[in-house]
Amino acid sequence: MRRSVAVFLLTGVLLLGGCIEPTGLRAVIDSTHKPSQGVIWLQDYPAEVTFDASRSTGEIISYRWTVLDEEGEELASSTEEEFTYQFDYGRYLVRLEVTGFGLETDEAQVEVVANKPPVAVISYARKDAMAGEEITFRADDSHDPDGSIVEYLWDFGDGSRETTEEPEVTHTYEEEDLPPGESRWQFTVTLVVIDDLGGISEPPYRHEIWIYGGCCGH
Ligand SMILES: [Ca+2]
User: Which domains are delineated in the chain?
Assistant: First the structure.
């Protein structure tokens, strides 16, 4: 007790003096695979990832790692500072709980997604069309090696975008989409597909289409 008071007083003095930052209990996860916006993406799996809690701060008396599947079911756990787990296809949550000297706790987590990205292909599209004409684009040859495609994101290059669940979309370029003074113009249509684990096709598939003005007066 006396020690806690002493630490408290000393910390208070140092903090007031602006000498040190507060060093509260904080769980910190480092890993052999770097996360991007809180998610570790594994395109090649099964893959082993090692997690390390050594940069956690505070007076830590215990660590607890857990790996949860998408349904929240616990798949593995460990009480070591470092923890390795082999991931197969799927979406997981890795949690670290650290417990401090006064039995207070802090938590950190990182999502792991083992998933091959889908591939976008515009398999049917016109090379040219008239302004005002309804044009069909198809993306049936798009595929996902280990799951299924759930969304098709179309960008028609004229400022309009559409998201479909089916691999087909129609679009009409209007006369006014053509730059002033031009009787024809080339637009780039791009397609990105998203799979059932949130994987994104990279790079987007591109298709060029010429649009011809109706006639005269444009
Ligand atoms: Ca996939």
Answer: 25-114 (2.60.40.1220), 128-212 (2.60.40.10)
